[in-house]
Each structure stands twice: as C-alpha cells, then as structure tokens.
C-alpha cells in the first residue's frame, strides 16, 4: 500500500459525517498493513514458532492491538499482519545497559530503522507500517520540559514514504507487546498524548495515551480520540492515502490471543512465569478463580481427598484478550469493553 509522500498539514477538508453516527462510511475505515521484523533476542525466547515463522503469533498480536480501537466513536481501525521476518542487519540495533539489565535504546534504533524502511522500494505495496519486535525491554524517554515522548513512532507520520516505523517489546509468549503497538498506531494516526498540557486531557485519568508505556486503561480519552478524528479529517481526501486499499494478510483470517491459546491448549496461569524453553508445550486449562470479568487468580493444579486446592489472592492474571465477558463485550488488557 505504498503512497506518495504527503504532509500532514494539508488544507482542512469539509467534513460530511456527524460525530454521533454509528454507521461507518467507507472513508472512515482505516486499513493498515503491518510488517513485523524481529531480533535474535525475540526469536530465542519466543515459544510459538510454527512452520518456520512466527506469523501465527504476530497475527494474534496484531488482532489484540486492533481491539483497543473497537469502541472509537468516529473511526474503524483495521490492522492486518502482512508478513514477518528476522531483521537482517542487527548492527542497526542500539543498546544501553543499566545495572544488570540491557535495554534496546529506542530513539537511535528507531532512527536507524527509518533509514532502512521509510523509502524502501522493496516493501510490498500492502505494507504501511513496519514494527520491530524486540525481546529486550525498551529504553524510551519523556522530556521534562515539554512532555514529548522519544523512542516511539513519529506522531502523524502514517503514509509518509513507503512505510512508517515503530518498536515494541514482546516476550513471544503472552502478547504483552499489544499495548504499546496500540499506542504507536494511535500516534501514527494523529492521537495526542494525555499529559495535561496544551489543552490535552489529564494523565490522571490513566487512559491509553497517558503514558509512554501505555496507560492502564485500554481505551482512548476524549482528547486522543478527537485528535485522531481531526487528523483524519485533514488528510482523508487525498486519493493516494495508504490506508484506502485492503492489505492481504499473511494468514487467511485474523486472530486473537484467546483463540490462539485455545487452539494450542495454553493457559495464562502456566505461561505467566517468565521465559520458557523452546520445547515448552502447553498442557491445557488450569484451575483459577475469576476476579471480575477479565482477571483471575491462579490456583494449584488440583485438589485431592487429603488436600484442598489453594488459590492466590493477589496479582491476578489478565484473561487473554478477546475473552467474552458478557453483553457482547470482550476482554482487552484485563478490562471488559
């Protein structure tokens, strides 16, 4: 889905769809094709390589990120994994060590990735965004003076060149990168941060855009949602917009973490405890006590006539994203929407 470079400060267009309408006109649907490149650290710790690729895992990861936008009042955001591969030149990845922990230094790495992909003519026309998925935690930065974020996808840069670029950390097991992927998709599409400055919503509400790591509530604030709508209104009349065609997925259908785990008989209570060996196999559902609609306390494997089952009473796990939670709603990041 390559598109000609365009500036985000295009002349404001007249707007023909009221904010209150629930029906989505075709022009209010944003379809983005995502290509994932991953590093050696991710490949080493991820346990769901199948048929020589991680496409099944990344398809479910992309579906999890898409779910963050399902209740957007104005736009429909559709994310499709086009393909994935290991990053060829990993000398472009920059690191910083703090204590015993090595982090991927996000800002200089992002700059290197932009040099590789932004004007890369070899990318499929289906690709709009390239995400690096790393197995190292990220080192990002927030400006003390302005509150600006450094190390994430450039705000409003969707459809610039041949592909926009972002970075996420994911453990290759629990889809924990979906949260930050959603943050960066929102940034690319013009979402403002919630930092209480320059008329933005207060960060204390803890919506998705309230933190560089993603706020705890997996929904957009009114300010962030409105700024995406405004950005869309400025650019959507451009006939070469990269999101106006439909990308072809790496797999035949989209997926979600709950379906992915279900098909492989995996359970969050056995996956949560850190790295697994490459030959790890899921062993089926584990006993748990529900804690609200989308969280649960893990329990010991089973009870006997001599011993009762014991369950934790702190640090509940999130049920897999996409788990039905009543009234047609589904779990996203531990909350029911």
UniProtKB/TrEMBL annotation:
One of its GO terms (biological process) is proteolysis. The keyword Protease applies. The keyword Heme does not apply. It comes from Amblyomma cajennense. This is Putative tick metalloprotease 41. It holds the Pfam family Reprolysin. Residues 30-247 form the Peptidase M12B domain. InterPro entries: MetalloPept_cat_dom_sf, Peptidase_M12B. Residues 1-19 form the signal peptide. Keywords: Hydrolase, Metalloprotease, Protease, Signal. One of its GO terms (molecular function) is metalloendopeptidase activity.
């Amino acid at each position: 889905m390559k598109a000609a470079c365009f500036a985000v400060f295009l002349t404001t267009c007249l707007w023909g769809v009221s904010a209150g309408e629930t029906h989505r006109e075709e022009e209010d649907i944003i379809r983005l094709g995502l290509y994932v490149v991953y590093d050696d650290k991710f490949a080493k710790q991820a346990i769901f390589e199948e048929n020589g690729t991680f496409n099944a895992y990344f398809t479910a990861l992309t579906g999890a990120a898409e779910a963050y936008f399902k209740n957007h009042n104005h736009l429909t955001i559709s994310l499709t994994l086009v393909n994935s591969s290991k990053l060829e030149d990993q000398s472009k990845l920059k690191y910083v060590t703090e204590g015993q922990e090595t982090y991927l230094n996000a800002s200089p790495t992002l700059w290197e990735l932009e040099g590789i992909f932004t004007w890369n003519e070899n990318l499929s026309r289906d690709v709009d965004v390239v995400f690096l998925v790393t197995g190292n935690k990220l080192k990002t930065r927030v400006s003390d003076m302005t509150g600006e974020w450094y190390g994430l996808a450039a705000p409003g840069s969707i459809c610039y060149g041949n592909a926009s670029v972002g970075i996420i950390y994911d453990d290759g097991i629990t889809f924990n990168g979906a949260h930050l992927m959603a943050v960066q998709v929102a940034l690319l599409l013009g979402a403002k941060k919630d930092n209480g400055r320059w008329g933005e919503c207060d960060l204390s509400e803890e919506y998705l855009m309230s933190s560089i790591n993603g706020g705890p509530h997996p929904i957009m604030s009114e300010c962030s949602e409105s700024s995406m709508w405004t950005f869309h209104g400025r650019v959507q009349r451009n006939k070469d917009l990269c999101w106006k065609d439909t990308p072809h997925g790496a797999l035949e259908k989209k997926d979600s973490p709950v379906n992915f785990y279900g098909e492989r008989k995996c359970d969050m209570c056995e996956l949560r405890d850190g790295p697994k060996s490459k030959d790890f196999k899921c062993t089926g559902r584990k006993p748990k006590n529900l804690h609200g609609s989308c969280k649960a306390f893990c329990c010991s494997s089973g009870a006997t006539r001599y011993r009762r089952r014991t369950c934790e009473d702190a640090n509940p796990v999130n049920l897999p994203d996409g788990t039905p939670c009543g009234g047609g709603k589904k779990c996203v990041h531990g909350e029911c929407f």
